């Protein structure tokens, strides 16, 4: 080869390399590189009755949107497909058992035991109704209508929840449902939009029906593969990623509202032939144009040869060429660029003879990848030249005859600059917390971008000025003295600090100030690190209010009522006064809801809340604790006579009729009354006894009140008998552990379990914890029972870890009394050592009250458990007074959302807001969030959308003995 030609070739290659990415690929390459299992024809299965998504045409062949999408996929990947349409249940089972490779498309709620690939289309479901019907907007308007729905379809479950007043008529197939609607057997039917359009067109009934403007449900249609079939999942995703939006939309447009039956089939065939003919003409024209463009490009390359050579000589790169054995056979460098060795020391030699072992291995591996993939491959390596470490970046590309061309650039200066920049930016510029560095005089010398983002002040505004937190006139004198006292004694202060932004807005921040001293102990700098806690405090306040007030009436709920009653009892005990508790239950309120609707019922409840408030003084409390149940606290009353007067006043108020929307009716109330200290000494006892008295009032004919009497205390004897039986159960080793799965919300994988105590009584059978735990707590037996449960659970979890090879986290509830035991940490450590369970796989669940009380002994126990490696979770979070302080200062890892908030998450906006706020608060503090009590797919979907990390509940599994629970675990 002549020198000039050789230079031209190398120049062109270099230009191509500089423009090409180091690594790349598309769906076709993914198919070529896939294992042999994927390169064979893959079997795709689908539903034979889901027209027009997929169905069997008149000729018995698969047709539809999904079929066309998969044909496009096959063209993109070069992988042949065998498309089979069968019964839907059979299709899912074939993929689970790997008798088929892929299910063509399904919704995530349908695919237990499957992995879901990326979606290829969205499906909207609407309500379709006769044109004679007016004013039908959504599912809330379906009361009284006959509504057609396919048996077992997800829309059946949706409408049973959202439209309880509708009369559902079940059909076996979509076509049967359409026929029922055409025949007038139903006025409304629920169906996927594309399916309805296709079938209505088929039966020439498009003009008979209208649909709702907004869909009642929208979901993604995704291919599915068997769990663990990750190679197939990657292949499927690569193929669908290669289909661009225009191609995808063309398929959807082709099938939108279209029928392929009857005479339309011939028109379709004619259209297809015309399109094929047109494509052939376009291809010939394109081929001609391509030749013209290639000729022009070739001339341009030749014309630019001198220019490219000049460019090449100016580049700071070296170009090497290797033969098939990895030997240097040529090189080229710019005028100012020289190889790291004289040419005679590397030309004709193998890479291993020239480069150090590590660099030689990296270069050899990159060559092999470039040859195998026929792609540009990039790498970096280091060389030590004359005692100096140098960094190089190389890009290799395959040539013919297995030769390799390699472009090498010295990037040492860039690497050193990157390292220095990274060290400087790691703590400073990349921090999401504001950072201020001041000198020994308190003058600001440096601030980061987060400081500006939080405060609004730029560096020019504060550099050279004294830091506010070090100035006496900038704050309260007591806080100023506290900060300087801590800095002088400990060299650091942390706390909540109210600051002011540049725009004048005051905001709370969590601030840490640290003194930096030199080797002689002299102060050289002050470092302040802070972050804005406005949203955290707002979320906290929102959670607090929503957790302690009834959303409908604005009255305190049960939790706040208990707190206020506790305070009233405390004051009464000190003053020697009396407190009354009234339990008010509405008589026959359910009839109003059933006959007049929930809107009327809600209006009545708000009216009742106002009437009850007017019956008491401002210092008394009225709370709503259930649907039609209210509690009242009357402070400093004259014994039963004072409570008697209020009870009569309530009944007199209820004697006046209620009027709503033209309806007038009467309501009664049954009232139970207890008085402190005569009828109980604590909150729970007083409420319980008032509840007993209320039921006595109902037995007496309703709409009256009853005072609690000692004769109602028969249950006390049962409690004493329970304590005796629990002591005997400990001696006989009758306590067992059941397990409930903890599931990853996004993937559905079982990642752990909660251990739940059960009492296997010979006489009573399996006793639930709610029946014996309260007695165990009161009697102190909970410590011994908890120890037994913890040892059993840890031993079983260790066995499962060994047998499955998976790290499954075990959660165990711990009572406050256990934490107060001095030897509790030692007990946990001993059990972990004896059972062989790693501390990191144990999570202890405690209630908010344990950390809220800030008891020194309990707090020390929590810190020691965290140091041991055990995780800590706050159980039933949101049901007590939550505090930002303990969330930040105690080693909490997880928040568990109480099942009471999850139960109505899809129907109660108040509960949904609480759950969303808890998830946001937990994630903002870096905590994991677990929702318990998940019982429906709707609850799971809602929690997944909120970003909740883990879920547990009856939707996944009921608590079960170890041998049954083991069936849920991921065995190898």
What does this structure look like?
The chain is α/β, with parallel strands linked by helices and 972 residues long. The protein has six domains: 3-20 and 315-412, PAS domain (Beta-Lactamase); 27-120 and 224-268, 3-Layer(aba) Sandwich (D-Maltodextrin-Binding Protein, domain 2), CATH 3.40.190; 121-219, Periplasmic binding protein-like II (D-Maltodextrin-Binding Protein, domain 2, 3-Layer(aba) Sandwich), CATH 3.40.190; 428-532, PAS domain (Beta-Lactamase, 2-Layer Sandwich), CATH 3.30.450; 541-712, Reverse transcriptase/Diguanylate cyclase domain (Alpha-Beta Plaits, 2-Layer Sandwich); 719-966, EAL domain (TIM Barrel), CATH 3.20.20. It contains 36 helices and 39 strands. The strands form seven sheets. Strands 1, 5, 6, 7, 8, 9, 10, 11, 12 and 13 form a ten-stranded mixed beta sheet that branches. It has an eight-stranded mixed beta barrel with strand order 31-32-34-35-36-37-38-39. Helix 1 (3-19) crosses helix 12 and helix 19 (534-548) packs antiparallel against helix 34. It is globular and about 115 Å long. Residues 1-39 and 257-270 have low confidence and may be disordered.
Q: Brief description of this entry?
A:
The protein is an alpha/beta fold and 972 residues long. A hairpin with a 5-residue loop joins strand 21 (492-500) and strand 22. The chain is globular.
- β-strand percent reads 15-25%
Q: Please, what is the CATH homologous superfamily of the largest domain?
A: EAL domain
Q: Tell me the major beta sheet.
A: 10 strands, mixed
Distance between the termini: 60 Å
Overall strand count: 39
- Our count of helices gives 36
Low-confidence blocks of residues = 1-39, 257-270
Class by SSE composition: alpha/beta
CATH architecture of the largest domain: Alpha-Beta Barrel
How many discrete domains? 6
Mean pLDDT: 84
What name does the CATH topology of the largest domain carry?
A: TIM Barrel
**What is the approximate shape?**
globular
From the alpha-carbon coordinates, what is the Rg to the nearest angstrom? 37 Å
Q: Give the class-level CATH name of the largest domain.
A: Alpha Beta
Helix fraction, binned, reads: 40-55%
Domain PAS: 304-374, 420-473
Transmembrane segments: 266-286
Signal peptide: 1-27
Domain PAC: 493-545
């Amino acid at each position: 080869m002549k020198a000039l030609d050789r230079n031209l070739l190398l120049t062109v290659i270099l230009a191509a390399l500089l423009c090409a990415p180091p690594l790349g690929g598309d769906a076709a390459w993914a198919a070529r590189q896939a294992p042999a299992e994927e390169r064979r024809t893959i079997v795709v299965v689908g539903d034979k009755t889901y027209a027009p998504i997929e169905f069997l045409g008149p000729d018995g062949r698969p047709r539809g949107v999904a079929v066309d999408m998969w044909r496009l996929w096959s063209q993109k990947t070069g992988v042949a497909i065998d498309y089979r349409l069968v019964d839907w249940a059979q299709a899912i089972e074939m993929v689970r058992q790997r008798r088929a490779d892929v299910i063509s498309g399904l919704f995530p709620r349908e695919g237990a035991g499957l992995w879901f690939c990326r979606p290829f289309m969205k499906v909207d479901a609407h309500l379709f109704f006769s044109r004679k019907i007016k004013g039908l907007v959504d599912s809330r308007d379906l009361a009284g209508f006959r509504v057609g729905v396919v048996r077992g379809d997800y829309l059946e479950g949706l409408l049973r929840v959202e439209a309880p007043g509708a009369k559902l008529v079940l059909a076996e197939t979509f076509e049967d449902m359409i026929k029922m609607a055409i025949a007038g057997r139903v006025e409304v039917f629920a169906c996927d939009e594309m399916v309805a359009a296709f079938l209505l067109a088929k039966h020439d009934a498009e003009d008979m029906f209208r649909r709702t403007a907004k869909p009642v449900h929208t979901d993604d249609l995704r291919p599915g593969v068997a769990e663990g079939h990750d190679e197939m999942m990657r292949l499927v995703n690569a193929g669908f990623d290669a289909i661009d939006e225009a191609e995808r939309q063309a398929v959807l447009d082709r099938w939108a509202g279209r029928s392929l039956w009857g005479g339309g089939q011939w028109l379709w065939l004619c259209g297809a032939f015309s399109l094929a003919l047109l494509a052939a003409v376009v291809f010939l024209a394109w081929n001609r144009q391509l030749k013209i463009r290639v000729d022009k490009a070739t001339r341009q390359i030749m014309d630019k040869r001198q220019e490219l050579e000049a460019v090449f000589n100016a580049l700071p790169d070296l170009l090497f060429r290797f033969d098939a054995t990895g030997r240097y056979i040529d090189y080229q460098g710019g005028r100012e660029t020289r190889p790291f060795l004289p040419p005679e020391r590397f030309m004709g030699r193998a890479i291993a003879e020239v480069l150090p072992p590590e660099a030689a291995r990296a270069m050899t591996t990159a060559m092999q990848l470039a040859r195998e993939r026929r792609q540009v491959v990039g790498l970096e390596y280091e060389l030590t030249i004359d005692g100096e470490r140098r960094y190089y970046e190389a890009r290799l590309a395959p040539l013919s005859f297995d030769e390799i061309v390699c472009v090498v650039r010295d990037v040492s200066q860039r690497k050193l600059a990157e390292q220095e920049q990274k060290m400087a930016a790691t703590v400073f510029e990349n921090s999401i917390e504001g950072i201020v560095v001041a000198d020994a005089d308190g003058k600001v010398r440096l601030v980061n971008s987060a400081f500006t983002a939080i405060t609004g002040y730029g560096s020019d505004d504060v550099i050279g000025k004294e830091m506010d937190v070090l100035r006496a006139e900038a704050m309260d004198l007591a806080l100023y003295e506290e900060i300087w006292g801590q800095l002088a004694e400990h060299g650091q202060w942390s706390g909540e600090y109210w600051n002011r932004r540049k725009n004048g807005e005051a905001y709370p921040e969590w601030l840490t100030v640290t003194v930096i001293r030199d080797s002689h102990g002299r102060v050289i700098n002050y470092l302040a690190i802070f972050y804005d806690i406005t949203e955290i405090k707002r979320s906290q306040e929102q959670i607090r209010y929503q957790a302690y007030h009834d959303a409908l009436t604005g009255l305190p709920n049960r939790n706040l009522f208990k707190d206020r009653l506790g305070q009233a009892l405390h004051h009464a005990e000190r003053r020697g006064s009396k407190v009354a508790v009234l339990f008010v239950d509405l008589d026959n309120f359910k009839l109003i809801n059933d006959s007049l609707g929930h809107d009327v019922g809600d209006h009545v409840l708000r009216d009742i809340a106002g009437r009850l408030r007017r019956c008491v003084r401002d210092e008394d409390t009225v709370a709503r604790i259930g649907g039609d149940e209210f509690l009242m606290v009357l402070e400093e009353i004259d014994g039963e006579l004072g409570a008697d007067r209020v009870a009569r006043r309530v009944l007199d108020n209820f004697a006046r009729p209620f009027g709503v929307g033209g309806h007038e009716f009467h309501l009664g109330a049954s009232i139970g009354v207890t008085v402190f200290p005569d009828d109980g000494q604590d909150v729970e006892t007083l409420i319980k006894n008032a509840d007993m008295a209320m039921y006595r009032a109902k037995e007496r004919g309703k709409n009256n009140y009853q005072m609690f009497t000692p004769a109602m205390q028969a249950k006390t004897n049962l409690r004493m008998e329970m304590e005796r039986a629990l002591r005997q159960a400990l001696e006989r080793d009758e306590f067992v552990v059941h397990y409930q799965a903890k599931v990853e919300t996004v993937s559905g994988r079982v990642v752990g379990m909660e251990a739940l105590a059960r009492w296997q009584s010979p006489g009573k059978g399996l006793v639930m914890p709610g029946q014996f735990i309260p007695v165990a707590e009161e009697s102190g037996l909970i410590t011994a029972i908890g120890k037994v449960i913890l040892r059993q659970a840890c031993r079983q979890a260790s066995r499962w870890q060994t047998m499955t090879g998976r790290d499954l986290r075990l959660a165990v509830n711990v009572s406050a009394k256990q934490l107060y035991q001095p030897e509790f940490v030692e007990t946990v450590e001993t059990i972990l050592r004896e059972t062989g369970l790693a501390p990191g796989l144990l999570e202890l669940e405690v209630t908010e009250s344990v950390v809220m009380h800030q008891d020194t002994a309990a707090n020390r126990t929590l810190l020691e458990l965290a140091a041991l490696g055990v995780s800590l979770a706050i159980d039933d979070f949101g049901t007590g007074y939550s505090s930002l302080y303990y969330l930040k200062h105690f080693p909490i890892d997880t928040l568990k959302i109480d099942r009471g908030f999850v139960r109505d998450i899809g129907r109660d906006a108040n509960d949904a807001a609480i759950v969303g706020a808890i998830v946001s608060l937990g994630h903002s503090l870096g905590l994991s969030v677990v929702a318990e009590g998940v019982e429906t797919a709707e609850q799971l979907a809602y929690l997944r959308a909120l970003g909740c990390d883990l879920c547990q509940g009856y939707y996944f599994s009921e608590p079960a003995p170890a041998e049954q629970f083991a069936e849920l675990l991921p065995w190898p």
